[in-house]
Write a structure and sequence with these properties.
The chain has 17 helices and 29 strands. The protein has 713 residues and is α+β, with helices and mostly antiparallel strands. The radius of gyration is 26 Å and the shape is globular.
Length: 713
């Protein structure tokens, strides 16, 4: 039953009372909370590799603690990758293709705009695939000079300690015990590995460092490595000494350094081009660090023990300085699984999303969409860092938006529009990626405004306003310029050409999608608030757009997805859901009618054969946030605990993309949107009722304890 409370902010003394009640509880035992969700693997499991990393670097390991079964894991599950956000490559462009070669003119309210929409052209294919991330290298075990085979392993017992970021892998090879510890540095692009086994002294067990040329990017998602072009790249030892070697990697116009440092004696040899072997020389222990750098300059080597200690401190800081939710006092049988999903998702966000380049949808686990950032997903990716008390990690990626602001302004100017037009699918260069969908997506455009507002909520001072005002104001200028005043109807309209969130409509025949209208209004509303905070007068053009912007389209008392598709409720079967993001993803504005959106939500769920099971992938967070803001906490919980096949969180916390589970086995927007939703459900939002954990049922079956979360608008 919905909450009988109006949608308004509650007075400070009510919120203060809730805070005082929460303070009466003893602190959450955070170490115990995280420890009870340690990950255990007891067999060779291609679906459940484990990753260590820091957001700008990640190393994904199989049950050996290294990357010894590359082909098996790639073909049957999640590939074994070594990735960094700073490492990118482009194949040669001998014919001098230009992005303009993939452009075509489209009508735009009496004039034309050129969009990079010719996806199947040579230029379209080239600039979709390039640049793409570099596979930094594979680190694996060899047994008696050959790759390990599955039958070589026995008695597997692998654990990921989430509190310290250490993977401990124990198993036998040919009956001999092997114990491996794998850990990543909290700041550097470095993996550190310690191996203990009686197979080390005689060289039966050795470590292989193997470097592919690149990814075979004709495959968009989870592309294989290119191993069969050894002449297309170079790997040189440029420095070496006792326990140390510096490699220089060159692939076309890209290059990077690889520094190896080992302890306990050992010998590095080059077995073949791009193929190096490290053997231990003293006792049954071999420990080393492998550090990847953007150049081949030498850096001070660190030991395995130093990296392990740094990792433990870094993860302790992450778990103790941000937000957590403890559901252990709940009697609802779904609580343990929801708590597991939360904790594992928090770990995966730190490893994959906490980088200086905004994340791709599969993070650093594997390539999806050629490893590019799809900016319409940016709120889903990074709003959770604000909610869970890690605003600094949100600001890392906002820094990239500040860097490409001149390029985004140039794109808008080339289209005759003011402000900054953000690229939809892009690499670190900020260049728009061609596609039949990409140029027509617009719900990415207000995202920087929303996320900057979240930073301001955490740090409400003038320094924040001055730091991000250009992002907010240039984004708002574009919103106002893109909205076209239709004199025939006396309103501002969005599109055509445009693609709505579902991406299924014809761009040239799509106008006024409901969510985009709501987001346009909210983005301009926030931007005007920033002007006021800075002592500036409201922008009259923004005010005019807000006052005359088309209303959200309605049919049969329910919101439409798109004004120009008015018959969605007259067709049998399911209906789209993006119009529901107008309340949930967004706070309520005067443009959204609560009862209309409630009827819309009810109809969407009624038409879904699986009920709440329809809320899969990132729509899990979407549906739960709408349910919570509508005062339907039982539905919100049912959505985030949905156990359908499409929403199963694997043992390692990964969720495959529902539409292509084998080609995209790690679809991290599902994890991020879960955190977006649960953060809102636990900490509340400005218009939430004055009760603890307002997005959870109040029937006594849920005891939600939380610390360090930030409320949403």
């Amino acid at each position: 039953m919905p909450f009988p409370f109006p949608a308004r902010a509650f007075p400070w003394f009510v919120l203060a009372g809730l805070a005082a009640a929460a303070a009466a509880e003893p602190p959450i035992d955070r170490a115990a909370l995280i420890a009870r969700h340690a990950i255990h693997v007891d067999h060779l499991d291609p679906i459940n590799p484990l990753s260590v990393g820091n957001g700008d670097f990640a190393f994904t390991a199989d049950v050996t603690g290294l990357q010894s079964f590359e082909t098996l894991y790639h073909d049957q599950g999640v590939p074994l990758e070594t990735r960094a956000t700073w490492a990118w490559h482009s194949f040669p462009n001998p014919t001098g293709l230009k992005l303009e070669d993939a452009m075509a003119p489209y009508p735009f309210h009496g004039r034309t705009i050129s969009y990079a929409a010719i996806q199947d052209s040579p230029a379209g294919a080239y600039f979709r695939e390039n640049p793409h991330p570099i596979p930094l290298g594979q680190i694996s075990l060899l047994y008696r000079g050959r790759p390990l085979a599955p039958e070589d392993l026995g008695h597997v017992a692998q654990t990921l300690d989430l509190w310290t970021g250490v993977i401990r892998s124990a198993y036998t090879i040919a009956g001999q015990p092997v114990v491996v510890e794998t850990v990543a540095h909290p700041e550097a692009s470095q993996v550190a590995i310690e191996i203990r086994s009686a197979l080390i002294p005689d060289g039966s067990l050795e470590v292989r460092f193997h470097f592919p040329y690149a990814y075979r990017t004709s495959v968009k998602n989870k592309p294989p490595f290119i191993w069969d072009q050894p002449d297309s790249h170079r790997t040189q030892i440029v420095r070496r000494g006792p326990g140390f070697a510096q490699l220089r990697r060159t692939l076309d116009d890209s290059h990077y350094g690889v520094q190896l440092a080992w302890q306990g004696g050992g010998n590095l040899t080059e077995a073949a081009p791009h193929d190096f072997r490290l053997r231990g020389a003293e006792g049954d222990r071999l420990a080393f660090t492998c550090t990847f750098t953007a150049d081949d300059g030498a850096i001070a080597p660190t030991t395995f023990a130093e990296t392990k200690a740094a990792s433990a401190q870094g993860w302790k800081d992450y778990w103790t300085q941000g937000g957590v939710v403890d559901l252990s006092g709940s009697s609802d049988p779904r609580a343990p699984e929801l708590e597991r999903r939360i904790v594992l998702s928090q770990y995966l966000m730190k490893v994959n999303y906490a980088g200086s380049f905004p994340p791709a949808e599969s993070g650093l686990v594997h390539l999806s969409w050629y490893g590019k950032h799809n900016s319409e997903m940016y709120f889903w990716h990074d709003a959770q860092f604000y909610e869970w008390g890690h605003v600094d990690l949100l600001e890392k990626s906002l820094g990239w938006y500040r860097r490409i602001l001149p390029d985004a302004k140039a794109v808008a100017a080339s289209q005759g529009l003011a402000g900054a037009r953000w690229p939809k699918m892009t690499g670190p260069d900020g260049r728009p990626g061609p596609g039949t969908i990409n140029p027509f997506i617009i719900w990415n455009q207000p995202n920087p405004i929303y996320l900057c507002e979240l930073v301001y909520r955490a740090h409400p001072d003038r320094a924040t306003l001055e730091k991000y005002q250009d992002l907010v104001f240039e984004s708002a200028k574009f919103l106002a310029a893109y909205a076209y005043y239709d004199t025939a109807t006396g309103r501002y309209v969005l599109g055509p050409p445009i693609k709505a969130v579902s991406e299924k409509s014809e761009a040239n025949h799509t106008q006024n999608p409901a969510f985009e209208l709501a987001y346009w209004y909210y983005g301009l509303q926030v931007a005007q608030a920033w002007r006021q905070r800075l002592g500036l007068a409201p922008d009259p053009s923004w005010a005019d757009v807000m006052a005359k912007l088309a209303k959200l389209p309605v049919s049969e008392g329910k919101y439409l997805e798109i004004e120009t598709s008015p018959d969605i409720y007259r067709r049998p079967g399911g209906v789209p859901t993006s119009m529901l993001m107008a309340l949930g993803y967004l706070p309520q504005t005067q443009r959204v009618d609560l009862e209309i959106i409630r009827r819309t939500f009810d109809e969407v769920n009624r038409r879904s054969p699986g009920g709440v099971h329809r809320w899969a992938s990132w729509s899990m967070g979407q549906g739960a946030m709408t349910a919570a803001r509508l005062g339907e906490p039982a539905t919100a919980v049912a959505i985030v605990t949905n156990d359908s096949k499409a929403t199963q969180f694997k043992n390692n916390g990964l969720v495959p993309r529902a539409a292509e589970p084998l080609d995209c086995p790690a679809y991290l927007p599902a994890n991020a949107s879960l955190l977006d939703a649960v953060g809102l459900m636990a900490a509340g939002w400005d218009a939430a009722p004055p009760i603890p954990a307002p997005g959870f049922p109040q029937d006594g079956t849920w005891k939600v304890r939380w610390e360090g979360l930030n409320r949403m608008p």
